Amino acid sequence: MSRLTIETRLDDDGLGVVVVPRGGLDLLTHQVCRRAITELLESGQYDVVVDLTDTTFMGSRAIGALISARRRTYAHHGSFAILSHDQRMRRLFEVTSLDKVFTIRPT
Asked: Which is it for the CA torsion 52, 65, 36, 43, positive or negative?
């Protein structure tokens, strides 16, 4: 079983929330990340950044969770971005053409 921790904090401007998954986002752990983002949205935080710097693996269910979260933030006129400097992670978004869907910024 993969170990995953989630940290949330205000972004540098204090206007949004940064979600930092540490570990692998696989079939067993993606729900932890989904739940953390859902709780933020339910509390009225619609400007979300997911920092994938310490994410070691991302499966298709985790990608689905990010797509769902993006859709929900946009429905509330919020914003959703991904931070990643890892070439493998960025390549995953390119191969799936999700680099055209998500705002992906280097860390």
From this structure: positive
Alpha helices by DSSP H, the chain: 30-42, 60-75, 87-95
Phi, psi of 69 (to 5 degrees): -65, -40
Q: Model pTM?
A: 0.91
Q: What does the pLDDT look like over 22-37, one tens digit per residue?
A: 999 988 889 999 999 9
Interior CA angle at 78 toward 76 and 80, to 5°? 125
Q: Cα–Cα distances in Å, from 5 out to 10, 14, 107?
A: 17, 22, 19
The radius of gyration of the chain from alpha carbons, rounded to an integer in Å, stands at 13
The CATH number of the domain covering residues in 4-105: 3.30.750.24
